[in-house]
Amino acid sequence: MTTKIAFNTANLVGRVTGYRFELKNWGQQDKMTVAQTDETAWRAICGEIAAAGFTAVEIWKAHADPSVMDAPRLRTWKQILADHGLEPIGYAAGYTADAVRVCESLDIPAINGGFWGSPPLAEIERLARHSGIRANYENHPEKSAAEVLAKIGGGSDMIGVTVDTGWFATHGADVAAVVKALGPLVRHLHVKDVKANTHQTCPLGTGAAALPQVIAHLKSTGYTGWYSWEDEPEDRNPMDIAADSHAWITRQLGGQR
Q1: Exposure of 54 in the CB half-sphere (CA atoms within 13 A)
Q2: N or C, fewer C-beta in 10 Å, the chain?
Q3: Span 98-123, average pLDDT
Q4: Please, what is the average pLDDT of the chain?
């Protein structure tokens, strides 16, 4: 059975500090990741992701930051992905012209992130239509479908939603109900579980994000987007549970792994 399961490299935010950091220092981790992700590091990351059973990857901006991705480097990154049999299916970043350039070079079809540092919504729509790179807004502070819809002006064929199940659960939302309310505007899913009333990530199915219900609903509606595993622990290496996480999502989707 072929399933659309991807690995989000934002999982590796703690990698540069030995998986010891605090969420409030995400920006610092981002900068260090940009500085330390050379060809050798990128090849090692892709190797570990492939070894865990993933064949698709969503690239966190810090692993392919526009500020350091010139044409030769982009060609190298693309070749390394191919060498490991990894399809790049998303770019976890704000929607900007620079982000679009990276996506065009790496054949990434969508940018899945909050509109951090992005131009006004009308310009995002223009860029998306011109480039063909879809924009999927990711919830972070929002607690309801209405708040998300307000950020994307109701959405369009080029502007949809990336549901981050973990962030909705952190704010105490009924995640399955929010997903139902967003309907076909849900174009991408960050499959993340968290402990109740926190943003402390945990193994899938053990937290407050109601993931079985969310996935069951999406299956029932004919959802065709990606299920991108996201786990950004501050005190452990997520690769230790990467293969198990892939298998868990596979089972939810009806597979037998």
Answers
A1: 34
A2: N
A3: 98
A4: 97
Q: Which two tokens stand for residue 24?
A: 């409030």
Distance between CA 217 and CA 75 in Å, rounded? 39
Q: Provide the whole-model pTM.
A: 0.97
- Per-residue pLDDT of 222-254, as tens digits, reads 999 999 999 999 999 999 999 999 999 999 999
Virtual CA dihedral for 3, 94, 243, 222, nearest 10 degrees? -20
Domains of the chain are: 5-252 (3.20.20.150)
Using alpha carbons, list the distances in angstroms from residue 109 to 15, 71, 100, 174. 26, 18, 9, 29
